[in-house]
Amino acid sequence: MNERQKELRLERLPIWNKMIKSIFPYGIPSQCEWTNLDDITSVLNYIGQYSTTQKALNHMFYPTGGGMDLTGAYLSNERECLELGTDGQTYIVKPKQLSFHSINKDPDWMYFRLDTHNLQPSGVYDYGEDEEKEEVTEISPNAYFGRGVWDHGYFDYDDGKGEVRLKSNARVVTRFFRGSIVIFCKFSLYNLVQGPTFNAYDATHNKYGNADFRKLISDMSDITSRTTL
């Protein structure tokens, strides 16, 4: 860990802790769960909006690897789904449960986990059973075409009139078919500890169930508490 990372941790982890306290004003629990879609959306949107005003406070890890900072969450046009906003990208998931976890009341190890139901492919592409997501062009609510439509700027031909151009509300979205997402403070140790045996960007969290992942994080907390960083 370099000096700049240490400075950012000292600055941002207390803000992350402050945000958590604002969600749980009467005491931070060791664990909490939400299953109602409106509640899940509200909590995630709050995290995204709070983080936006506090200069990239969170980082969201995808079920397929990689990640981005969450900027907001909104109910989707797709039934029982929500949209996760990032800087310039939108992801659609079908939530099953959002859970909060606090390990030893340490903001380094306070995180949110979103587990999802299976989401059926749009039918735009032909997939094998192992496919986990798709990137599509939405030309109107729930009307999907291939990603190439966005690149070309049109989706059909009108006899005698030429190309049918995309309207201003068209957009590219990524639909996750399954899996889980976790959100940590952007400057947490989970985000910074990387090596040959562990890398958070390899979707490590998605290889574990909720309880087993919490156990992993608890073990990491114990190890790092005994290590000078």
Structure write-up:
It is a single chain. By secondary structure, this protein is α+β, with helices and mostly antiparallel strands. It folds into 2 domains: 3-119 and 178-225, no CATH class; 133-172, no CATH class. The chain has 5 helices and 14 strands. It has a 6-stranded antiparallel beta sheet with strand order 1-7-8-14-2-3. The protein has a 6-stranded mixed beta sheet with strand order 4-5-6-13-9-10. It has a two-stranded antiparallel sheet with strand order 11-12. The model has no long low-confidence stretch (mean pLDDT 91).
Structural topology:
Elements: H1 3-23, E1 31-34, H2 37-53, E2 58-61, E3 67-68, E4 72-75, E5 82-85, E6 90-93, E7 95-102, E8 110-116, E9 133-140, E10 143-146, H3 147-152, E11 154-158, E12 162-165, E13 171-176, E14 180-185, H4 189-192, H5 210-225
Parallel strand pairs: 6-13
Antiparallel strand pairs: 1-7, 2-3, 2-14, 4-5, 5-6, 7-8, 8-14, 9-10, 9-13, 11-12
